[in-house]
Design a protein that fits this description.
Number of helices: 6
Distance between the termini: 28 Å
Strand content: 25-35%
Number of strands: 6
Structural class: alpha+beta
Strand order of the largest sheet: 1-2-3-4-6-5
Radius of gyration: 15 Å
CATH class: Alpha Beta
CATH topology: Aminopeptidase
Order of helices and strands: HHHEEEHEHEEH
CATH architecture: 3-Layer(aba) Sandwich
Shape: globular
Largest sheet: 6 strands, mixed
Helix content: 25-40%
């Protein structure tokens, strides 16, 4: 999962995120964070797609992190290794996760404002623009936009 994360960030965010941040991405560090996130008792759901025994994509969701009232759940991220993109894996993972979440509760996802591919993906899945905020990545500040579904079941239609 950590390798998919780093590879995807290096491809997807080049030109959107400062190079200095991308240069500091570390597979071992991200792997440690994922072990903590997936530890027993975690309230995070994570689905993976595998090919030949290796993970090629993953998506993760759980409680909404900002404590908003409208959306109780959040899609934390979808990462598909570059060679596996545009094959329906992202959509399949999102639908699988959505099927495990509370169907009547709202779902929120964040994307960098300049990431037109991600924004188009969420719009294609029926997400509506909700709000934006500033994201801090170390010393860098970027704009993120949120897309939402009033009920997770709306995502499955």
């Amino acid at each position: 999962m950590a390798q998919v994360h780093v590879t995807t960030w290096l491809q997807t965010y080049q030109g959107l995120v400062p190079r200095a941040y991308l240069d500091r991405l570390d597979v071992d560090d991200i792997g440690r964070r994922w072990r903590d996130r997936l530890a027993p008792g975690s309230n995070r759901l994570t689905w993976v797609a595998e090919e030949d025994g290796g993970i090629v994509a993953y998506a993760s969701a759980g409680p909404e992190r900002e404590g908003g009232q409208e959306f109780a759940q959040e899609l934390y991220g979808i990462y598909v290794a570059p060679l596996w993109q545009a094959r329906g894996l992202g959509r399949g993972l999102v639908h699988s996760l959505a099927g495990q979440l509370d169907a009547s509760a709202g779902l929120l996802v964040w994307a960098l404002k300049q990431n037109s591919a991600a924004r188009g993906f969420y719009e294609h899945l029926g997400g509506r623009w909700v709000r934006e905020h500033e994201l801090e990545l170390d010393e860098f500040r970027l704009l993120e936009v949120a897309y939402g579904w009033e009920a997770t079941a709306d995502l499955l239609r």
